[in-house]
Each structure stands twice: as structure tokens, then as C-alpha cells.
Amino acid sequence: MHDFKLFKRTLKGINRRIKIQADSGYQGIKKIHENSETPKKSSKKKPLTQEEKDNNRRISSERILIENINAKIKVWKIMANRYRNRRKRHGLRMSLICGLYNYELNQKR
What we know:
Number of domains: 2
Distance between the termini: 38 Å
Shape: globular
Strand order of the largest sheet: 1-2
Helix content: 40-55%
Structural class: mainly alpha
Strand content: under 5%
Number of helices: 4
Radius of gyration: 17 Å
Largest sheet: 2 strands, parallel
Oligomer: single chain
């Protein structure tokens, strides 16, 4: 299932005041959640203006932090593959993996 389809199903649990920054696969999210941002797409007929490019760069630079964390979590395969264990323990395992990642970050400092 695509992320945007899953987002539409679970939208009820997201507060309208929360700012959402999504990738370009979420085009049209503004119609559903007003407090959201996505990068503009260019086309052959309508290239991006410099202002739109700068805005896309700003969004990308803010999103890269969480994208790097998601990539590290995917190394543990809990988000990369279908979770086949007990649902009750998914949150616990995610917390443990995130704790290990935070521990690894603190060891590098």
C-alpha cells in the first residue's frame, strides 16, 4: 500500500495544527491537511522558478534529518519489511531500536 493511501486512512488521528512536510509523492495533501508542505514538481512545459527551487531546497533540508533516521531504522528491517510478529510488541521493538540508534549517536560524539 502506498504511504499516501495509508495516510488518508489514518488522517483522523492527526491534529490539524501539526505541520506536515511530505515528499513529492504526496501531491494533493494540501486539499486534505491544510497545514502541510510538499515540494513543487517541474514539467517540460513549466520549469520551476528560482523561488520554487529555493522553497524545495528548504523543505528538503528540513526533511533530511528524519529521512536519515528512517533509513537507519530500516537497517533493522522493522520498517522495511512486513512485520510478522505480535502487534503488541511492535511499539516496544521500535522503541528499543530507536534507543539503540540514539545510543549509537551519543557514542559518536
